[in-house]
Design goal:
The structure holds 2 protein chains of 2 kinds.
Chain A: H1 13-24, E1 27-29, H2 30-37, H3 41-53, E2 57-64, E3 67-74, H4 76-98
Antiparallel strand pairs in A: 1-3, 2-3
Chain B: H1 8-23, H2 30-52, H3 64-82, E1 85-86, H4 88-114, H5 116-138, H6 141-157, H7 162-188
Helix pairs in contact in B: 2-3, 2-7, 4-5, 5-6, 5-7, 6-7
The chains are: A alpha+beta, B mainly alpha.
Chain lengths: ~100, ~190
Amino acid sequence: MPLKELDPLLHSQLRLAIVSLLVSVEEAEFTYLKAETNATAGNLSVQLQKLKEAGYIEIEKSFKDNYPQTMCKITSKGLKAFDTYVKDIQHYLNLKTKK
Amino acid sequence: MEEKELNINESLSIINSMINRAQNNLSDNSFYFIFWGWLVFSSALIHYCLLQLEVEKAYCVWLLMPLGGIVSFIYGARKKKKEKVKTYLGTYMTYLWGSLGISLLLVLFMMEKIGVTPVYSFLLIIYGIGTFVSGGMLRFKPLINGGLICFLLSVVSVFVDFDIQLLLIAAAILVSYIIPGHLLKAKFN
C-alpha cells in the first residue's frame, strides 16, 4: 500500500501523537497533551481543531478554579480511524516483508 | 513536536511511545490502602482489647469510620483537582470502591436483623473483593494474594467467636491492605 493512502489526518506527527495518547485514556487536559507531546500551544491548538473538525475528538472547554480548562476526548469515529490506520500500517509492513 | 512527513517506522514509534507514556501515568493509589488499612486494623484491635476489659459500648470505636470517610473524600477531591488526565482505570476504581462502600453500609444496616456474627464474615468478603479486583487491575500480586487471604479468613470467621473475628479482621487488613499498600507506595517511589 502506498503511504499516501494512509489517513492523512492521522499520518502527521503531532496529530498521531495526540490520538495515540487519547486512545489510551478516558480524557485529557490540553496541558497534559502539551507536556506529553512537547508541542507548542499554538501548534497543538491548530491540530486539535483539525481533529475536532474531522469528528475524531471532542473538545470541552470549561473553567476550573477560575482558570480555563480544555478537555479532549476521542470519539468512536476517532477510535475507528485509529484502528484502521494501525491495520493499514500492518498491511503495508506485511507487503514489505513479502517482497 | 513539529509537523513533518512521516514514514511507517516513525508512525509506529510515535504510537508506541505515546501509548507507553499514557500507561505510565497511573496514579499512586496506595494512600487509600494504607490509610484505611491502619484505621480498620487499629479499630479492630482496640475493639478486641476493650471487649477483653469488658468495657461497655466497645463497638463505639467504629465511629472512627465516618471520620475516615471524610478524610478520604477530602484527599480524593484534592487529588482530582490536580489531575490533568482521566484514566479508564481511575474510573473503574471509583465504581469498584463506590459499590463496595455501598455494600458495606448495606451489610451494616442489616446487622440489626441478621446479627453481628455473620456481618463480620461478610465484611471480610467485601474487603477481599476490593483488594483482589484492584490487584488484578493494577497487576499487583500482593493485593491479589491479600484478597485471597481475606476470602479464606471469611470462611474461618464463621467458625469462631466474635472477639476472635475481630482478630481475623485485623490479620486480614494487615496482609491485604497495610502490607500491599506500603509495597505499592514503595513501587511508585
